[in-house]
Each structure stands twice: as structure tokens, then as C-alpha cells.
From TrEMBL:
Residues 1-27 form the signal peptide. Keywords: Signal. This is Membrane protein. It comes from Aliidongia dinghuensis. It comes from the Bacteria.
Amino acid sequence: MSKVTGAAWGASLLATGLLVAASPARAEPAADPTSIWTLSDENSSITTSKLNDKYYVNGLKLGWTSPTDAVPHFIASIGHSLFGEGQQRLSLDVSQSIYTPADTLAVPPDPKDRPYAGVLLLGATLLQDTDDTRQSVGLQLGLVGPDAEAEQVQNGFHDVIGYGHTKGWAYQLRDEPLAELLGQKIWRVPLGTVGGFETDALPQIEGGLGNLRVYGLGGSIFRVGQGLDADFGAARLRPGLSGSDAYHATRNFGWYFFVGADGQAVVHDVTIDGNDFRNSATASRMPFVGELEAGVAFLAYGMRISYTQVVQTEQVYGQHGGPHQFGSLTLSAHF
């Protein structure tokens, strides 16, 4: 086990202890009558001055989150049945994720490396909050394959910036429908003040079930700053530690630095295991993945901007270059 994996799983064990010890949920937070628009981009090239597309190359998401308690009755009833009382929001989003092997010039690609894959998803998530918990259940529907337009997006962007084309997209996974049910719970555990700054921990568990992925995740984020009760951490594309797109600033200006770690047990990942219902490229998947992350978030004038740097252990046996890195940038605004 690598040092990154060990650290991530150590943090996960700590998070499990925190989950057990966390106190029962208290009252609901203040109502928010405005909706939120969110744009997120994750890219492996953010981490270096030399563009180097490989593995998880890019994830792009556009999302909308409703005002509090502006949720259709039948969906609200599901949330109350699952989670009890709490303040509810509904989030809708569209996302695209792009994956390639390490050598994007080889034709045919290395048969032992991660396959080329594009994933296009529509998602709906019900969020339910108390003062110190956020719980959610969501459904993602979409497809993997050429109709996800990953080749066109990647090589079209390369044309704009004057970078060469990725050569192996003819070998990508074939078109296939995808579905995934997601569940998540985050605890907000205040840790007191240090030098006048607030600190807290955000232990989290998450799971996904479907032909996109089958996985379980446990981990925690630790934060220091001001106005930490505005959200449950910075947003990221799943799987990974994500506080989601919803926030409600409790002061004119808030900010925080954060570090976190998670461990993921992965039973199935179509982007590595290949198509479920037809022959395709495939690779030998690692059953456990660890992540370390660090970043910063600012909240002001109804907006939130965050940046997260992620270091991720190998997802494929024989993966080139050791742990993978990517940056995650998210901008949200109230309307």
C-alpha cells in the first residue's frame, strides 16, 4: 500500500469514529429563497505548466439548485421518509467526463492501460440539511461511448489552444446507457477556534450503485477559516469528497482552507472495466483507491469560488507515473 493510500485509509478510519461519535442533528438552518447556479471544471492539466492529458482528463458540470423547500411534494416525501426532518433543496445537473490512457499518440492504444471513454450524465439530487448534517440521495442517467462527444470536446479544445490531437479515440468504449443511484451523508463537527479562526471536521460517507460505478467511500475534510456554517465543504464531481453545490452565506465575506482524505472501495467502474453488454477495451482495476486533497474557498456577494488540488492513487494495475493529480475549480452564484 502506498503512502497516499495509507494516509487516505487512515483518515477514513478516523472519519468512521467521528461518524459514530457525532451528536444527533439539531435544528434546521435559516431558509434561503434564492436558487444557485454552479459551473465546475476538473482537469489534469491544471496541475502542470506542460499539458499532459491522461487518465481522468477532464470533468465539466453545470448545475442548478433550488431555493430551500421548493421541492415537488412527492420528492420531498421521499426525503422525509429516508432522513426524517430537515430543510430540502433539489439539484439538477448535466456533466461530461473524459478518460484516456497515458499514451494518447499510440494507435492502437496500450491494451493494458485505461481505455478511452467519454461519459455524459443528467443528474437529480435531493439534499436535506440540519444545522450539523447534510444527507442526499440522487440518480444519474446517461451514456458512455462516442455519443458522449468526448473526442469532439477534447480535440476541439486542443485545436483552440494549438495542441495536437489525441489519436486513439477510435478505440473508445462503445455506446451504452448508464444509471447510478447515489447516497451521501456529511456531518459538520465544530472543533473550536484557533487564533480567532473557526475550525471543523466534515466526516463523510458516500455510495454509488449502478452500471456506471459500484463503490463505497469514507473520509473527512478538516477546515479553518470564517463562516464555516455556510456550507458542507467545496463542491467536486463524484466520486470524491464533495459538499455539493448548495450553500448559504452567513456573513458578508467567508473563507476557509481545507485538507482532506478519503478511501474508496470500488466493485465496478465502467470506464475501466469496459462495456457491460458488448465487447470493448478493458483494464485491470484496482479494488481500493485513496485520495488526498487540499484547497481554498471564498464566499462573498452571493457567490462561492473554490479550488481543490487532488492526488489520487493508481486506479489501474501498472498505471504509469504513480499517483494521478488533477485540479478542481468551481464557481457558484445565487440568483
